Amino acid sequence: MSTDFGGMEDLLQDFLTEASELLSEVDNKLVELEKRPNDKNLLNDIFRGFHTIKGGAGFLNVDAMVRLCHRTENLFDKLRTLELVLTPEIMDTIMAATGVVRDMFGALAKGALPNNAPEELIAALDAVLEGRPLETVAVAAPAPAAPSVHLASEGPDWDALYNALLGKNEAPGAVIAAPVNVIQHEPAAMEQVVSDPMNSLKPAPVTKTAVAPPPQQQQQQQQQQTAAAPQEATIRIDTVRLDQVLNLSGEIGLTKNRLTTLRTDIMAGKMDSNTLKAMDEAISQLDLLVGDLQNAVMKTRMQPIGRLFQKYPRLARDLARQLGKDVELVISGEETELDKTMLEDLNDPLVHLVRNAVDHGIETMEDRKTSGKPAKAIVELSATQVGDHILISITDDGRGMRPDVIRKKAVEKGLIDVETANSLDDKQSLQLIFMPGFSTKDQVSSVSGRGVGMDVVKTNIQRLNGRIDIQSIVGEGSRFTISLPLTLAILPVLVVRVCGQPFAVPLAMVREIIPIRHEQIQEVSGRATIVVRDEILSVRSLASLLGWEEVQLPQFGVLMQSAEHSFILAVDSFIGRDDVVIKPLQNIRPKGVAGATLSGDGSVVLVLDMEDLLGAADADNSAIRTSRFLEKTL
User: Fold this and answer.
1) pLDDT value at position 162?
2) Residue 295, number of CB atoms within 10 A of its CB
3) Which of 49, 282, 343, 566 has the fewest CB atoms in 10 Å of its CB?
4) Whole-angstrom Cα distance, residue 32 to residue 232?
5) Mean pLDDT of 333-352
6) pLDDT tens-digit profile of 483-493?
7) What residues contact 281, with CB distance under 8 A and at least 6 apart?
């Protein structure tokens, strides 16, 4: 019994992984089908997708999924044979069916049999198959399945699910989802979409009378989904890459044997030049092999970003339909690879940015016609690798952003004062949209208006050691560009020395290194500044930021670029550039410290989180400590 159970568990996990990817492909093909409703290749591909999912569900005895997929499969069979003509109402019904199937995947992943599809959805599919009008049929959003009796921390109740799949409902501990009342929702209630990878796309209903839950309830549901959404613990790796790791491991084993032999010879007193030369060659060989192995292992964590991008065409389609806009999401650079852990953490920011482009950036169809633009708006989502960084761009051809309006809104909401607003240039004004509570919408809707979106984007991007920049032209559109390191496992750093202590700062923030000539330092508004190529930059002493007394006047400056501004970080000296593996500090998280690493001589080096350090220093009256630095230099 236990052997069969183990096999069933593996089969179920494989089914969920493969079927979820297949359903995402079906979603994207459905979006394409709306543009080309008579494309037989697309119709055949979608038909085969539902047929494959139905076959896997039938093998696992998930009858609710089988019945739903069978009806949808029949619908596409009629579309293929031209017995039916695809209409927007029929497409909404199909989209609703894919959303319910995705929720059924979520129920299985949590260790529970899924509920039957909502009666309203079954009635809508039957109406389409029988040729009856759809106006009188309300398609409801899927209801969640009853969870397993086990706690979430214990994982799914595989025994109960196994018995249920075999039809042994009377077995002890078996969990069968009880029928629940179906609640109708507004089309694509996007507030509930953001963070749940198993339920990232909600179906769009075909009725116009459905009532959405209150905004407060939507926000609570979103927070609950965010807290409960687990990250995937598995990864698919190309066998070629695993073979490369295996080969390198074998080469390192041979080099280790060679070093062991040489060590024995040296310990025996054999110190001739040939032995020392052989030892040097073996160490150099080991150095090369370890570097190659490190790169090969890192590549096993790399995944094409297209696996993340494939979620967004459906999201943009549903939101545009809800808002009455015609928007096409164009994707490029899907083959660009990024660390898997970063892909998971990147989902929320990209969802916010795509929704923001469709909701805020794109005008209504009437406004676009008035301004001479095509009725169909274009939102571009692209990724490309530049050096050791990934650039992700979200571009729209919408209305653009007006810096003066953004400054005015920020003042109205009490986020900044009038004096600060007047001192900001256009580029700095655009950065105000990342402030918590900022929104240009006067009324809260199910899509936006709460001011809790863009600040989350910036926070999450900074957590990934990345930055986000904005370019916008009024009347032409906006572009958000995210710059991220390829991986978080290895961080390129610049190691500096202050008061005799080494510290590491992220190399991604470093623009250049300059000597500090103290006669060039000037006081501006109580802060030390230096003019570098006609740009006035503030000088921030690293010792002062750390709260230390300066033993000597800093001799060098690191010109650094943070998300908002450039500045000079004053340090005593440099040790050099290095690629380090960051280790988190157990049970403590000091302000401004991202973690620790070991230097070549075995000493501990703290890796600084410059954004956090600057924010903490500014909040703790850093101007006083900076003025002390001025007293010593002026």
Assistant:
1) 43
2) 12
3) 566
4) 28
5) 86
6) 888 776 677 88
7) none
Specify the pLDDT at position 109: 82
The pair phi, psi for residue 289, each rounded to 5°, is -65, -40
Please give the CATH number for the structural domain made up of 304-485. Answer: 3.30.565.10
φ, ψ (nearest 5 deg) of residue 371: -85, 5
C-beta separation of 80 from 44 below 8 A: yes
CA distance 514 to 465: 24
Euclidean distance between CA atoms 83 and 80, whole angstroms: 8
Beta carbons within 8 Å of 450's beta carbon, 6+ residues apart: 215, 219, 439, 444
pLDDT in tens, 350-395: 989 999 899 889 999 888 988 899 989 999 999 998 877 789 999 9
The pair of structure tokens assigned to 232 is 């995937």
Residues 552 and 566: beta-carbon distance below 8 Å: no
The pLDDT score that the predictor gives to residue 247 is 92
CATH of 491-633, one of 2.60.40.1190, 3.40.50.300, 1.10.10.10, 2.40.50.180: 2.40.50.180
Size (the chain), residues: 634
Angle ∠(217,222,227) on CA atoms, nearest 5: 130
What three-state secondary structure class fits 188?
coil
- The verdict on domain 2-185 having CATH code 1.20.120.160 is yes
Residue 583: pLDDT band by 50, 70, 90 thresholds?
Answer: confident
pLDDT digits (tens, 9 = 90+) for 625-634: 444 455 555 5
- Whole-number Å distance between alpha carbons of 387 and 383: 13
Other Cβ atoms less than 10 A from the Cβ of 31: the count is: 19
The CA dihedral of 95, 478, 463, 155, to the nearest 10 degrees, is 0
Which pTM value belongs to this model? 0.63
Tokens for 254, please give them: 């041979």
